[in-house]
Automatic annotation (TrEMBL):
<comment type="similarity">
    <text>Belongs to the PspA/Vipp/IM30 family.</text>
</comment>
<feature type="region of interest" description="Disordered">
    <location>
        <begin position="182"/>
        <end position="206"/>
    </location>
</feature>
<feature type="compositionally biased region" description="Basic and acidic residues">
    <location>
        <begin position="183"/>
        <end position="196"/>
    </location>
</feature>
<dbReference type="InterPro" id="IPR007157">
    <property type="entry name" value="PspA_VIPP1"/>
</dbReference>
<dbReference type="Pfam" id="PF04012">
    <property type="entry name" value="PspA_IM30"/>
</dbReference>
<feature type="coiled-coil region">
    <location>
        <begin position="69"/>
        <end position="135"/>
    </location>
</feature>
<protein>
    <submittedName>
        <fullName>PspA/IM30 family protein</fullName>
    </submittedName>
</protein>
<keyword id="KW-0175">Coiled coil</keyword>
Length: 227
C-alpha cells in the first residue's frame, strides 16, 4: 500500500532536512503510524470477509460430498434389496450432488487461495508496522537530539555578543572609572590641606613628646634632691 512507501521514504530521509522544513518529524511519524493502523484495520476486515466466504464454500462442499457418499450407499442398499429403480434414482441424485460438489470444491479452492494470500499480506503488514514502530522511537530520539544540538549551536554562536555580555563589559568599565575617580579624589584631598590642618597635626604629634619630657625632668629633679 501507499502508506508503506511513504513511511519507507521517511526512514531514508535526513532528520536535519526535515527539521529545516515546516514539518515536525515526531508528528509526521505518529500520523504515518496512525495511517498504517487504519490500513491494517481495513485489511483485517477484508481478510475476515474472505475467510467467511472460504468457510461458506467449505461448508457447502462438505455437504455436497456427504450427499454424494450417502446417495452411493443408498443406491447400493437398494440394489441389495432388489430395488433397481430406486437404486437408479439414488445414483441420478448422486450425480447431481457430484456436480454441485465439483463446483463448490472449485469455488472453495479459489476462496481458500485468496484468503491465504490475504492472511499473508496482513501478516506482512503487521510485521512492517512493528518495524516502523521501533524505527519511530529511534527517529524521534534522533530528531530531539538534532533539535537540541541546533538550539545549542544557535545559542553558542551568539554567546558573548548579546546584551548581557555587553552589559558586563560596560559595568567593568564603570567600576574601573569609579575606582579611578576615588583615587583622584584622595589625591586632591591631600593636596588641599590648609596650614591650620598641618599645625593641628603638628601639635597633635608633638604633645606626647612634651609630656614625656616633663616626666623625665621631674624624675631628674627628684634624683638631685636625694643626692
Amino acid at each position: 500500500m501507499g502508506i508503506f512507501k511513504r513511511l519507507r521514504d521517511l526512514t531514508m530521509a535526513s532528520v536535519n532536512d526535515l527539521l529545516d522544513k515546516a514539518e515536525d518529524p515526531v508528528k509526521m511519524l505518529n500520523q504515518f503510524l496512525r495511517d498504517m493502523e487504519e490500513d491494517i484495520l481495513e485489511a483485517e476486515t477484508a481478510v475476515a470477509k474472505q475467510i467467511a466466504i472460504e468457510k461458506k464454500f467449505k461448508q457447502q462442499t462438505d455437504e455436497a460430498e456427504d450427499m454424494v457418499n450417502r446417495r452411493g450407499e443408498q443406491a447400493m442398499k437398494a440394489l441389495e434389496q432388489g430395488n433397481e429403480e430406486l437404486a437408479r434414482k439414488a445414483l441420478q441424485d448422486k450425480k447431481e450432488h457430484q456436480t454441485r460438489y465439483d463446483e463448490m470444491k472449485r469455488q472453495y479452492d479459489i476462496a481458500k487461495t485468496n484468503a491465504d494470500q490475504l492472511r499473508a499480506q496482513l501478516s506482512e503488514m503487521k510485521d512492517e508496522f512493528g518495524k516502523m514502530k521501533n524505527k519511530k522511537d529511534l527517529l524521534v530520539a534522533r530528531a530531539e537530539s538534532a533539535k537540541a544540538q541546533k538550539q545549542i549551536n544557535q545559542t553558542m554562536s551568539g554567546f558573548g555578543q548579546d546584551n548581557a555580555a555587553k552589559g558586563f563589559d560596560r559595568m567593568t568599565e564603570k567600576v574601573l572609572q569609579m575606582e579611578a575617580e576615588a583615587e583622584a579624589s584622595k589625591d586632591i584631598r591631600s593636596s588641599n590641606r590648609t596650614l591650620d590642618d598641618e599645625l593641628a597635626q603638628l601639635d597633635k604629634g608633638g604633645g606626647g613628646v612634651e609630656d614625656e619630657l616633663a616626666v623625665l625632668k621631674a624624675q631628674l629633679a627628684a634624683k638631685k634632691q636625694q643626692q
